[in-house]
Amino acid sequence: MPAARHPRRRRFVVAEATVTVRVVIVDDHSIFRSGLRADLDASIEVVGEAADAVAAVEVIEATRPAVVLLDVHLPAGGGTVGTAPDAAGGEAVIRGASPVVPTTRFLALSVSDAAEDVVRVIRAGARGYITKGSSGAEVSRAVHAVADGDAVFSPRLAGFVLDAFGAAVGETAATSDELDRLSAREQEVMRLIARGYAYKEVAAELFISMKTVESHVSAVLRKLQLSSRYELTAWASERRLL
């Protein structure tokens, strides 16, 4: 009798799921927009472009992206969007962002690393600031971080933000009872998050999981009665904990 034939086992390769982030690029140089679009990772889907603030409003409202990559020195395109003739700062980050699409986050991308540009854009509502010298991979990582709710700055630029929102002369360090609310690990996480580290960076720095970082951040915000990482940055800076 012929030997029983067994069905050949097939190998299945399951591709790792990658979250696609929808973005709009706002920059007045078409060559830069084209180059950036080509250099971004496959996980970034460019759903629209604009060359000025007025056009940006229309594109953002039509496409509702997760993140807008925004040039800092953006022309107003008619003068009806900006908060002032010299608003710059991504035309005041499209007039405060929320009137456009509340769920969209803004990531400034500029040739400038001047403190005044960084501070102006962050005050206007951007969630991060990176320079145009960044690689496509770096911009892509920053987009994912901002889409996840993190703030993204290089260490040098983060220093400008902390200085701008920092402690005034004569303010004292945090009292021990405030810090006593936090465990030693929560204090470590608090300092890194307040300095602008992304959750992934905190996890790598402290050799813990992303979920653990998220748990610590939630605990820190709850214990200090704060509502966001931006309030946490201001709180830590006022107390000279950075």
Automatic annotation (TrEMBL):
Question: Which PANTHER family has this protein been placed in?
Answer: TWO-COMPONENT RESPONSE REGULATOR
Domain HTH luxR-type: residue ranges: 175-240
Which segments constitute the Response regulatory domain? Answer: 22-147
InterPro entries this protein is in? CheY-like_superfamily, NreC/VraR/RcsB-like_REC, Sig_transdc_resp-reg_C-effctor, Sig_transdc_resp-reg_receiver, Tscrpt_reg_LuxR_C, WalR-like
Tell me where on the tree of life, at the top rank, the source sits.
Bacteria
Q: List, alphabetically, the SUPFAM superfamilies matched.
A: C-terminal effector domain of the bipartite response regulators, CheY-like
- Keyword annotations of the record: DNA-binding, Phosphoprotein
Please give the residue positions where the record annotates the modification 4-aspartylphosphate.
Answer: 71
Recorded protein name is: Response regulator transcription factor
